[in-house]
Amino acid sequence: VGGASTRPARSSRATATARRCRPPPALAASAAMSPTSASERRKEAGPRMLAERDSPRERATISLHSFLAGSIAGAVGTLVGHPLDTLKVHAQAGRRSPSSLRCLFRGVGTPLIGAGALQAANLGVYENVRRRLSADRPPLLCHAAAGSVAGLCISPVTTLLSRVKVQQQLTGQSFVATARSIGSLASLFTGLAMTALFESTRGGYMLAYCLLKQALTPSGSAKGEPPLWARTAAGAGANVVTWCVVYPIDVVRNVQVAHAAALPAGQAPGWLACVRALLREDGPARLYRGYALTILRAGPVAGVILPTFEVVLPYLEAVL
């Protein structure tokens, strides 16, 4: 009898404890309605640093959104930077500067059409490679390696685009007339080796961008998120620093393309012959002709492309 009398007491105490631990109805309802998918969580959090979002599922799947975000960023960057790029190419080739605004946008059709696809490939490959590498490697190493891999992947395409763009900028021909005048497939790939070397330096650019972004992020920033101005400043600063090192490579490849535009097919000089000719012309200073115009362009363009990519990508992943 005594044992039987204690069971109800224990049961009532357990019931009272359960009632005390049970969350209020409002909290229970909000917990039931809380987002469970990765895209909904991103939508609530807003733009975040890409390296902090990676989950095992994200590392294992291909992000198609990164290709779309890259195409948007590429188109924006082309519109900002093409006029200064035209001035740079004229300076590098030793030609007079264009005399009108229309001339500054000469040849913009080719890079504008191609920039979306090109940056889609560049930033899409970069983001997917970075996610795959981010499981057990230092984040900065992942950014640098992914940038270099992406640059090498797009170098055949950038060689073709650069060949057509530079000839249009120097001659003023239409796209169709330029394509007809090129003559051979070998001429289309003039400067491929220097372009591949140039594009592979994107790894150094991504490394500089990440370091500057970390340094510029205010200590009191929410969740350690860099504000938009810090991303913009980091993109511009990283590009200026990178161009200091890689500018001679860009000069050599553009001079190769300029020679290919002026000479019969198959007679364009190789990169080593171009380097020797440029050094004989004006010494090492010749390899930095047009550098000021490049720096003027590098800041605004890089200050637009990566911040646009980093802001657009989370929203695309949340909405689509």
Strand percentage: under 5%
Class from secondary-structure proportions: mainly alpha
What radius of gyration results from the CA coordinates?
27 Å
Low-confidence stretches: 1-6, 25-52
Order of helices and strands: HHHHHHHHHHHHHHH
| Count of DSSP strands | 0
Shape: globular
Q: What's this, in brief?
A:
The chain is an all-alpha fold and 320 residues long.
Task: Give a description of the structure.
By secondary structure, the chain is mostly helical. 76% of the residues lie in helices and 0% in strands. It has helices at residues 2-21, 25-33, 38-45, 56-60, 65-92, 101-104, 109-133, 139-171, 175-182, 185-188, 192-200, 202-216, 228-262, 271-282, 291-319. α3 (38-45) packs across α15 (291-319). The relative contact order is 0.13. The model is unreliable at 1-6 and 25-52 (pLDDT under 50).
Write the layout of secondary structure elements.
Elements: H1 2-21, H2 25-33, H3 38-45, H4 56-60, H5 65-92, H6 101-104, H7 109-133, H8 139-171, H9 175-182, H10 185-188, H11 192-200, H12 202-216, H13 228-262, H14 271-282, H15 291-319
Helix pairs in contact: 3-15, 5-7, 5-15, 7-8, 8-11, 8-12, 8-13, 11-13, 12-13, 13-14, 13-15
